[in-house]
Structures are given as structure tokens and as C-alpha cells.
Amino acid sequence: MANLTVKKQTLKPFTLDSKPIIEKYLSKLDVDLSDYTFAANFIWLANSSGFYAVINKCFCLFVMTGGELTMLLPPLGKKKYVTDAMIRCFEIMNANNSSPYYARIDYVQESMVEEFVHSTDEAESMFVMLEHYIVEKKLVDYIYSVDSLIELRGNSYHTKRTEINKFTKSYPDHIIEPLDSIKHKDEIMHLFNKWVSDRVKYMPKEEAEVFLEGIHQERHAVKQMLKNYEALSLVGLVIYINDELKGFTVGERINDDTATVIIEKTDFEVLGCAQFIFREFSKMLKDHYDVKYINVGDDMGFENLRKVKMSYRPFKLVPKYTIYQK
């Protein structure tokens, strides 16, 4: 993919070679949102065109969809540079896009929104800023105590313990092993396709239509994850029952305290499998990264996914914002 030049600003392709560059900027931030890692963006851009530039000493990540530029993250850099970088990024998006309506910055952490709005001590400038932009709260990330997910103590986790006990009694010969992207590739894609088919089968029609719109992108993301698993420094687990792969999960570290689950899929017909592999992967993430918390991302607006994630009693919910122009 070639460079893109907009308003005299060169945007470079967001490839594996970009990993050490964005990670240098991410390492200086205090964030625990699941979107703030290289892998989380790289695999989900598998079906899109990602570009980046360092603007005003900030790393700026753009995505081109249908000819329109948006940003997947706010400019990543020191606070004193972010606001000017953000304004410049809107200028670049406006110059490329068919309408200012399409320009936006997604997945902005709350502290960065505050920095953007209160970027100056002069109240007048703050009102000028608010006059031109809309800040909208979108989804939330669900973050849990890793020990709570492993121990599942108390009445609030009674159902989870019961489901796991049923699973281990029903499938005493199950086997868990670390994910091998070469060995397990075909079986993972087979399970993914079965998972899609099963989800649609039991989903309300109106919800299924929205679900299928996003599943094409998720299938590409899983392929991208498997293709670049080692280079992305991911960790994962698979579970076998009677020599058939029935679940897989993949994650990584966000910061010193928090790891994230990027993707998890299990066979719906194996009751308790999802609860079991989630607990086992929580153990793996704690052992591998020595983290206190696990972020499982947002619920993508699906009510059933919200209920499942709330049932694990989140330690906290971290909101994500989108910034638009008026």
C-alpha cells in the first residue's frame, strides 16, 4: 500500500513495521481501554486501509473506509501536544472527505476528552472549542479483577461455578493447550464459521441483520490474527473435546496492570465451555503478564452481550467517546 498525501501531510501505511512506533507512544500513556494496543487495531484493519503520521509530536492513526478518512484513536502523545494535533487531524480529514460530517475521532478515553475541552486556562477558548465540536459518549469497556474471575467466590458467581462444574463433569477428557497459529488455524476457522451459523440461528431477525454486517470484518480479523500471531506477541488457548476443537481465545497486555481478551469463541452446543475457557484464560493472563485486571472490550451495542459481561460483575466500566465536528 502506497503513502497517502492529504493537505501536504504524508500518511504512511499502518503495517507490522508500525508496531514499534505506535508502541513507543502508547507506553507513555495511562490508559486501560482495549483499543489502545497495536494488535487490536492491526487485526481489525485487515479489511480496511490504515494510515498513520506523527503530527505535532503525536502518533495519529487514520482509517480509510469508502474513500472517507476517520481516526480510530485520538492523537497519542504528551498532553501539551494533543489538542493542536487533533485540530490538524480534523483539517486533514476535511481536506480528504466528501463532507465534514464524515470526519470523527473514535475511542477517546475520558481523560483525553477532558484534556481536549480544557486545553487552556482561558474559559473563552474552551467555549470556542465546544462551539465547533460534539463529544458523544459511546460504548464502555468492561474491566474485571483477575482474581475474581479465577476464584468466582460468593453468591454472585454461583451460576458461573455451576456451569463450570457441569462442564468438567460432562467432559472430563477435555484438553487445554496453548494456541498454535499454524497447528490450530483450520480448526479455529471451522469453529468460527460454526459459531456464526449458530448465533444467527438463535438471534432475533432485526439483530441478525446488524450482526451479519460486522461478521465479515471479524472473519478477516481472525485470519489476520492467525497469520501474524507470533509477530503480534499474542497469547491464547484452545480447548479440545473428543479430538475436536471447541473453543479458542486470544489476548495480550494493555499496560502493567491490565491484559485484554481480544477474541473468544466457543461452541454453543457445549454448555459451560465459554465459562470454563474464560476462567482458564484468566489464569493464563495472570501468570503470563502478572496483571491485576482483565479488559474484555465493549458489548458492541448488543443487549445479550451486555448482560453476559455484566453477569461477571465488572470492577469498573470505562467509557469511550467519539469527537465530531458541528
From TrEMBL:
Domain of life: Bacteria
Phosphatidylglycerol lysyltransferase C-terminal domain: residues covered: 34-324
Pfam families the UniProt entry points to: LPG_synthase_C
InterPro entries (alphabetical): Acyl_CoA_acyltransferase, LPG_synthase_C, UCP018688
Protein name in the entry: Protein belonging to UCP018688
UniProt organism field: Sulfurimonas gotlandica (strain DSM 19862 / JCM 16533 / GD1)
Classification of source organism: Bacteria, Pseudomonadati, Campylobacterota, Epsilonproteobacteria, Campylobacterales
